[in-house]
């Protein structure tokens, strides 16, 4: 979830609570007003890359967590990232989203946006959405309200407290509900959803902001087999419309969704190719099996 969204959600919950205390809600705390949805600007992908990292380094207390990392992602690509524990996968996502500043290197969004010059909230607003492993939906709001809230991430929080959808936004919300398989659950409180449904809802919240690039950290951890299968279908349906970077340890899930797989190890790329290719690579076998 984006920093702006977390802030807006906290404010929204506070306002909902206040209204409940006063006994005066009209529509579950989302009464008249307006908001300005974040709309990502155009990203220049004429060079065939939506994300480009070159020779990125970061050390924590002398430990090289990212060590000469080079990576690029094509527009509309669904890239899977695998690697043993401590390989640097989370740190890489932290760098892309502005949470961690690298010591050196180049990180570009499209060919013109130098991500190292931007703050975390701005990077999210430019169209890079991040989904952490643990779902962080607003449990006391309905599915509908969670999605609605995702449109209202204006930094002037007062707007998000009093947000009202226009026709186009209602259509979009309906589409996202269908995409994330929650059309029948729009009025349910998010806290009553299964783990998998919460994950889909959070992905839906990111989709409401129409991200160009989605970073997804272990999206199927803790899901049932059926939920995992549905998540695979969801990601395949998003491919092309969005670029996706999926970090996951579940190899059967990777097999279902992947074209190109990148193996990270010790902070840099060890191998890249189809899952079959990287699984047959002696160096990959060695880091996974410790031979
Ligand atoms: N803030 C930090 N301070 C010190 N060390 C850190 C910090 N963040 C990450 N590290 C270290 O950097 C290395 C890479 O960590 P990272 O979390 O990026 O790996 P990962 O590939 O995501 O691992 P996992 O699959 O277990 O989530 C690890 O050895 C970790 O302990």
TrEMBL record:
GO terms for molecular function: ATP binding. Keywords: ATP-binding, Cell membrane, Membrane, Nucleotide-binding, Transport. Pfam families: ABC_tran, BCA_ABC_TP_C. PROSITE patterns: ABC_TRANSPORTER_2 (PS50893). Signal peptide: none annotated. Residues 51-291 form the ABC transporter domain. SMART domains: AAA (SM00382). The keyword Hydrolase does not apply. It comes from the Bacteria. InterPro entries: AAA+_ATPase (IPR003593), ABC_AA/LPS_Transport (IPR051120), ABC_transporter-like_ATP-bd (IPR003439), ABC_transptr_urea_ATP-bd_UrtD (IPR017781), BCA_ABC_TP_C (IPR032823), P-loop_NTPase (IPR027417). PANTHER family: CONSERVED COMPONENT OF ABC TRANSPORTER FOR NATURAL AMINO ACIDS-RELATED, HIGH-AFFINITY BRANCHED-CHAIN AMINO ACID TRANSPORT ATP-BINDING PROTEIN. NCBIfam families: urea_trans_UrtD. This is ABC transporter ATP-binding protein.
């Amino acid at each position: 979830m984006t920093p702006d969204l977390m802030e807006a959600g906290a404010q929204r919950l506070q306002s909902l609570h206040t209204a409940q205390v006063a006994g005066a809600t009209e529509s579950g705390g989302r009464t008249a007003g307006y908001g300005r949805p974040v709309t990502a600007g155009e990203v220049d992908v004429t060079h065939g890359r939506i994300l480009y990292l070159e020779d990125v380094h970061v050390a924590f207390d002398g430990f090289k967590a990212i060590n000469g990392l080079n990576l690029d992602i094509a527009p509309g690509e669904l890239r899977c990232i695998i690697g043993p524990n401590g390989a640097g996968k989370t740190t890489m996502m932290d760098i892309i989203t502005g949470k961690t500043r690298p010591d050196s290197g180049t990180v570009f969004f499209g060919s013109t946006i130098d991500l190292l010059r931007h703050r975390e909230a701005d990077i999210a607003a430019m169209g890079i959405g991040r989904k952490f492993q643990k779902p962080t939906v607003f449990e006391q709001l309905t599915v509908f309200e969670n999605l609605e809230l995702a449109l209202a991430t204006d930094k002037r929080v007062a707007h998000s407290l009093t947000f009202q959808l226009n026709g186009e936004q209602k259509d979009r919300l309906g589409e996202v509900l269908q995409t994330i398989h929650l059309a029948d659950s729009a009025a349910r409180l998010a806290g009553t959803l299964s783990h998998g449904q919460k994950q889909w809802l959070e992905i839906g919240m990111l989709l409401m902001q129409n991200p160009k690039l989605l970073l997804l950290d272990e999206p199927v951890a803790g899901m049932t087999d059926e939920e995992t299968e549905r998540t695979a279908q969801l990601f395949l349906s998003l491919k092309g419309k969005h670029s996706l970077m999926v970090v996951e340890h579940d190899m059967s899930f990777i097999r279902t969704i992947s074209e190109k797989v990148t193996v990270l190890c010790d902070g840099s790329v060890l191998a890249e190719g189809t899952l079959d290719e990287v699984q047959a690579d002696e160096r990959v076998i060695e880091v996974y099996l410790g031979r």
